[in-house]
Amino acid sequence: MHDQSDQRRGANRTRRLPRNQQRERVLRLVTCATGAVDASEIATQMGLHVTTVRFHLDALCEDGSVARTRIKRDGVGRPRTGYVAVRDRLDYRGLAEILAMELGDTAAERRQRAERAGRRWADRIMAQDGSDESADAARNGEPAPALDDRTGRIADAFERMGFGPEITAPADVGDGHRECAIRLHACPVRDLARSHPEVSCAMHLGLLRGLLSTDADGDENTALHAELEPFVEPELCIARVIGR
User: Fold this and answer.
1) What is the topology classification, in CATH, of domain 90-241?
2) CA distances in angstroms from 92 to 77, 98, 192, listed in the order given
3) What is the pTM for the complete model shown?
4) What is the distance between the alpha carbons of residues 92 and 89, in angstroms, rounded to a whole number?
5) Is 33 left (phi over 0), alpha (psi -120 to 50) or beta?
6) Right CATH for 18-83 from 2.40.50.140, 3.30.2170.10, 1.10.10.10, 3.40.190.170
7) Which of 114, 131, 141, 159 has a CA positioned 20 to 30 A from the CA of residue 93?
């Protein structure tokens, strides 16, 4: 009896919290989760209605604190919407704003320099995660990592940055080539991407190509290459990785 009473009192206290405190607690729960968490799980933990929790999650997504992703169901059914905390978002936004202001006087200059910065960013990520598999394979006379494996590594990196990636099944695109598409359901700097796509989107393209460790104009018969389609829908960009 006491346990049930304590739970009811805890839920009542949660409901009486000012909205900004509720939102901070929602953010803490998302941040402390080991993976993506959905609105119903948070609602259960907080003793709130799931609609109220979704309201706070939408606001946190809008300010860049949280990103949407997909949680696969066991068995048949559409994936659930999950939420993950966006780590280091302030540093990332600050970097992007500086790039937008300082990269050049023309859109072409900014695009070229932003893509180069994205490649250097990818070099740093790969150095932190371990050696580049493609380079190691070439030195050892072994085949480079498969299209599916490399796409998975790229998606993992974009997941950590809050892009909410979803890999689609590989598809044949002719001439013996296959394509893996990564649907990016969230952008940590969406507002900047809309106002300065020549900076934000070019930097993400450079990051994508750098993680792939290939040149855009490399040998199409052997190399993997990548393209980025920004805002194919208001909340969706698509990264395409193509190879044999």
Assistant:
1) Muramoyl-pentapeptide Carboxypeptidase; domain 2 (3.30.1380)
2) 35, 10, 11
3) 0.58
4) 5
5) beta
6) 1.10.10.10
7) 131
